[in-house]
Amino acid sequence: MPRPWYETIFDERYPELFGPLERDPEEEVSRIVDLLSLPPGASVVDLGCGRGRHAIPLSRRGYRVTGVDLSYKMLRLACERADREGIAVEWVREDMREFVRLGAFDACLSMFTSFGFFNDQENEKVLRNVSASLKEGGTLLLDLRNAQKGLAGEEEDLEKTMGVPAGRLRLHVHFDRQTGRAHAEHELTRPDGIRISSAFDVRIYSEEELNGMLGRAGMHVTAVYGSLEGSLFTPGAERMVVIARRV
Fold this sequence. Notes:
- A seven-stranded mixed beta sheet has the order 3-2-1-4-5-11-10, sandwiched between helices.
- It folds into two domains: 5-146 and 205-246, Rossmann fold (3-Layer(aba) Sandwich); 149-201.
- The chain has seven helices and eleven strands.
- The chain is of the alpha/beta class.
């Protein structure tokens, strides 16, 4: 039986295939700190931390950071960078469906659509784990693709090609309105003609669905934005940034 996509996609190909879509992590961390009003020295868990793009800048600012990821290769890159820069982060290799640390964190981050990898029941389990791991009054930040732009829009498919430092990157996303999932493929053609690609499949939730899921997990949505800059959330927004507090 083939391994699920989330066990294979996060490897050495990832920076070339997804790096061009990433924004400046230092700027994003500044926005996160502002949105969550994080006090100095707060404990933060970065769930699906990858190669530490946000965990390392957060630690540099004096926060106590735990980075959780399933990918050994991504965690190795994160650890190597943190060591080079003299940054202290606790790196944990564990499935987010299983990671729980009761009442340990002031805040939890889930960045760059790192939520929705699994089926609905398993995704709800992730949220229950987050709620259990937050202190009372702790906050969750979910940075997600805006569901209304794809699943509720007129177009079911998105195709885009762009020039990137490593060659030409083609992005194709199909929004399946029946399942509420986005099926995406990234293909990079290098100057020498070599092609590398990866595919993923993510459940895209609406604002209403997330409100229900977070409520059942013991959290209350306090704000929804269209970006980390805190812009108004509209049907045409690129992102859906959800802030929820453990009650």
